[in-house]
């Protein structure tokens, strides 16, 4: 094995995923050579604190100096696992400009600057691989760009945040309330100290932006995504959903409807029989529909040290083969369409609406009348026995333009029979 | 767009999938150019009868003469959709030897001659793509070779035959017996006039052989696969399985255990909570487990005109890009390991065993004793009320070496209390 068969790489970040990748690269030395015809040498590891002990990673290869990596012409491959937009974006851009191949798991950078980075990689003739950025160990980025390229995709629905799926599973299966389930998720290390990005849907928003862009070959960024989190979901909502035969999941949804893209994250009631309904705990899943391929779903570990590292390793192996075969830079995924993104008001949804109303004759008829007069047609309704003069009314609507639904809701909120709007959640289906 | 940007192809076969691919290639003309920088021209379509009318395909491009295609130097890509081993295998080999790229959906050829064809493609510097050969529209071939390449895969379990999954779903959900469900499948066109290849597990056997080879990078062919079909499954088996919390599915299973490969197709009781249990009707799904990636599952349409055509189209787009970028021949998947395949007797399983026994005191104790003396330990047992002096005994065993189970069964069969062995089905789990 000659000198030319060693590919030298730098790892940016030695946290959970970074140390997993380092360990996996050691374990798979022989496999990688068999698959690519080359060996990988991780020559440098960029860390903030070079003094800190990182088990398994030799001290002498650690550096806190990015320039040292950027200027090292022996380093052909940069594996970026720092997370966050800056300085990761700058490092990725500089690496590509310097002709280095890039593997990254950074959804933040890709959701905001994905198309610029893909174009830069194309112009530089460099690989940019990012299978781990969405749904961890689940192969979804490459299938969207390759195997499904002839499928005429029209819709993606994804459970792409494990923390919130874990919380909703605990609420649904063990009757926990939101706070209790969040505490449990924090205790197990699924939720971070500040869980905002997960529970408000921002993390899922980044992932659905990336998938939307690749599925529809059109630029979609994080700022295009409408987002609603799970903080308002109560155990009552979950209980009523169950009565109607639904489970509640936080979904990233993107659709191509009449040449316009819808892209959003929100909780949704999905039928118990739907494949996504069976995705429990911290598992992720991505459901796709195409005119040619029909329905397909991909399920697996969306996070975690070794699952995420395994996806990064798949990317590394591909880049190594491309280096050996002198074939880097054909990444695909650069947008060649220019679909507009619909404002949320112009999208359609079915709705689950839970109301507390005065227990008076005609209250239901009044509310149903107001909804009907505003183009909100009722598909199912349940009224529960009154307590303390207040009755609980749960309505599932047919598909309605969000704008119309909001108008109707405004009027309902002004009605004298209304005591409280306790829950508003979108429902699967047209 | 100059002359060099038209890629000329030949389609071998114009049946259901072939006509779907032709139609999709027309529909996606613009998409394909955007994605690859080239246009596709299907210059020839090989059919047995050139007189037969095939809606959508012009008569003048049909030929019944393979040599005409093989010798046409303009044709760079051969899309083989005839099925069956010969003459498809010969055509694929000759096309590769002539330096033509090949896309095929032919599981028969790949399950028997996959490694020879992959090696030939590598030596010829040609592409061989076959995403549609296993599980139709579900991307699984390319993920096994690429995204999951760093996942340390140890096990695959697949529902990879839609016909049998449809039959078992009807038996399970509508209480049909096997014959009735088969008749329904035939009526709907899911089952062929001769359903042997489906119901005996041969079709699934071909697909699991292909996946096993790719997952473990070792040569596994159709003849290595142990196969049992679904013809002996009764509605009683399904009912008892349900009582124990299981559903019955026909699975292709392959495992890498202590450096040896297990590869088999048989019905299996799987827990209702397992993701594979929720895969209904004619849907396919492939469940994989790896030491690094943990569990993952891929679900979708395993057959049908447009779903299969969409997978073929994904392959065509990849080959076109490779032609444009002068980068054909890096297929991966050539076996570099040489794991032996275990004989079925040396594999381990849990078992569901349904017996009719004489309704005499001590019958259960007798049988339990014989099982125990032969290393078959009982995990669960149900004895049903006797009718006409015969009691039904249903046992689920712990994991046992197949050889030991067979020995025990032989002795049980010779016992005077035994009236009939009514069902023997393997059970999920270790």
Written description of the protein model:
The structure is a homodimer of 430-residue chains. The first copy, chain A, is an alpha/beta fold. Chain A folds into three domains: 154 residues, NAD(P)-binding Rossmann-like Domain (Rossmann fold); 161 residues, 2-Layer Sandwich (Dihydrodipicolinate Reductase, domain 2); 84 residues, 2-Layer Sandwich (Alpha-Beta Plaits). Chain A is 35% helix and 28% strand. The first copy, chain A, is built from 14 helices and 17 strands. In chain A, strands 7, 8, 9, 10, 11, 12, 13, 14, 15, 16 and 17 form an eleven-stranded mixed beta sheet that branches. In chain A, helix 4 runs parallel beside helix 5, helix 5 packs parallel to helix 10 and helix 13 packs antiparallel against helix 14. The radius of gyration of chain A is 24 Å and the shape is elongated. At the A-B interface, helix 2, strand 12 and helix 12 of A face helix 2, strand 12 and helix 12 of B.
How far apart the termini of chain A lie comes to: 60 Å
Compute the number of helices of chain A: 14
Question: What's the quaternary structure here?
Answer: homodimer
Q: Unreliable runs of chain A, pLDDT <50, ≥5 residues? A: none
Q: SS-based structural class of chain A?
A: alpha/beta
What fold name stands as the CATH topology of the largest domain in chain A?
Dihydrodipicolinate Reductase, domain 2
The mean pLDDT of chain A is: 95
Rg calc of chain A: 24 Å
CATH architecture descriptor text of the largest domain in chain A: 2-Layer Sandwich
Instruction: Note the overall shape of chain A.
Output: elongated
Helix content of chain A: 25-40%
Percentage beta strand of chain A: 25-35%
């Amino acid at each position: 094995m000659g000198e030319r068969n060693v590919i030298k790489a730098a790892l940016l970040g030695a946290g959970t995923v970074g140390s997993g990748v380092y360990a996996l690269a050691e374990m798979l030395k022989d496999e990688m050579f068999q698959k690519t015809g080359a060996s990988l040498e991780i020559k440098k590891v960029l860390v903030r604190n070079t003094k800190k002990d990182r088990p398994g990673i030799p001290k002498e290869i650690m550096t806190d100096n990015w320039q040292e990596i950027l200027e090292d012409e022996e380093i052909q491959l940069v594996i970026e696992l720092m997370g966050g937009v800056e300085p990761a974006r700058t490092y990725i851009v500089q690496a590509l400009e310097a002709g280095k191949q890039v593997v990254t798991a950074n959804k933040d950078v890709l959701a905001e600057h994905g198309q610029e980075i893909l174009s830069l990689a194309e112009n530089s003739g460099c690989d940019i691989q990012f299978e781990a950025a969405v749904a961890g160990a689940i192969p979804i980025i490459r299938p969207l760009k390759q195997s499904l390229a002839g499928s005429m995709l029209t819709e993606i629905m994804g459970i792409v945040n494990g923390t919130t799926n874990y919380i909703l599973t605990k609420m649904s299966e063990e009757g926990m309330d939101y706070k209790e389930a969040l505490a449990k998720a924090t205790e197990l290390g699924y939720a971070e100290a500040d869980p905002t990005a997960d529970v408000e849907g921002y993390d899922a928003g980044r992932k659905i932006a990336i998938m939307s862009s690749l599925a529809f070959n059109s630029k979609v960024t994080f700022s295009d995504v409408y987002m609603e989190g799970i903080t308002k979901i109560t155990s009552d909502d979950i209980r009523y959903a169950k009565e109607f035969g639904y489970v509640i999941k936080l979904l990233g949804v993107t659709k191509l409807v009449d040449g316009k893209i819808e892209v959003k994250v929100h909780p949704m009631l999905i039928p118990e029989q739907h494949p996504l309904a069976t995705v429990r705990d911290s598992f992720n899943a991505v459901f796709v529909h195409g005119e040619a391929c029909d329905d397909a779903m991909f399920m697996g570990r969306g996070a975690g040290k070794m699952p995420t590292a395994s996806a990064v390793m798949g990317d590394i192996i591909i880049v190594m083969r491309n280096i050996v075969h002198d074939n880097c830079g054909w990444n695909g995924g650069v947008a060649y369409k220019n679909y507009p993104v619909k404002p949320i008001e112009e999208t359609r949804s079915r709705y689950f609406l839970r109301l507390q109303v005065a227990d008076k004759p005609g209250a239901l008829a009044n509310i149903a009348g107001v909804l009907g007069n505003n183009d909100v047609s009722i598909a199912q309704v349940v009224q529960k026995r009154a307590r303390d003069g207040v009755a609980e009314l749960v309505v599932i609507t047919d598909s309605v333009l969000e704008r119309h639904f909001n108008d109707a809701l405004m009027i309902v909120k002004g009605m004298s029979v209304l005591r409280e709007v306790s829950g508003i959640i979108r429902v699967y289906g047209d």
